[in-house]
Amino acid sequence: MTAFLLLETFKSQSGVSLLAVISVVIASDTGHQGEAIKKIIDKAPDVFKVLDVILFEKILEVVGDYQPEIIVCTLREWEENIDVLSEIKNVCPQTLVVMITEKEDPEVVLHALKAGVDSCLGSITPGYILRSLEMICRSGIMIFPRMLKPRIQRIADLSEYASKRIPEELTGREREIYSLLLKRYSNKEISQQLFISESTVKVHVRNILQKIGTKSRVSLIDN
Fold first, then answer.
1. What CATH class has 164-222?
2. CA-to-CA distance for 62 and 170, rounded, in angstroms?
3. Which pTM value belongs to this model?
4. I need a labelling partner for 58 at 20 to 30 A (CA). Which of 33, 52, 86, 147 fits?
């Protein structure tokens, strides 16, 4: 893709009129990662211009003055930085925020998107970083597919079991737990979802299995 075409595509998606190449700020919680990303992006000077490479902890102090088109964040410890991620859009509302993380966990993606991140990339090879940034510029959002596979599978399971009728003999709480069992939730996940103890969940599960005449939760799902 030529620089002109990429810029025009970015302009049409973001609504920002660009007279120069796409400006990028790189923020990393480890300095060497940021410099490595810069070397890769610098290979496309007709498309991207790296304005600065900074430590992630300094990002809110710096990006307000730059107002870059893209911020690339390389994070090893995303949990410790989630609050800062959520503030970036307040400082740079028009900026696309890209997070590169080694933790290929669907929960990481969901937390990051909730914090305002536009794109999450997993452990990708350096050669794909430029291509990924180009795709992000064209579409405005990109999620590394492998990172969401477990969550997509859970959604598929949800759809598969949504048509199962909840037995009328179950109590209100048992109905809630029954629905979560069909979604393959563990006892721990059910307790977190309903804010009850795991021991309470186990009691309800035992009662549910007795009422519907099933010996195990596996056979409950398969029936």
1. mainly alpha
2. 57
3. 0.59
4. 147
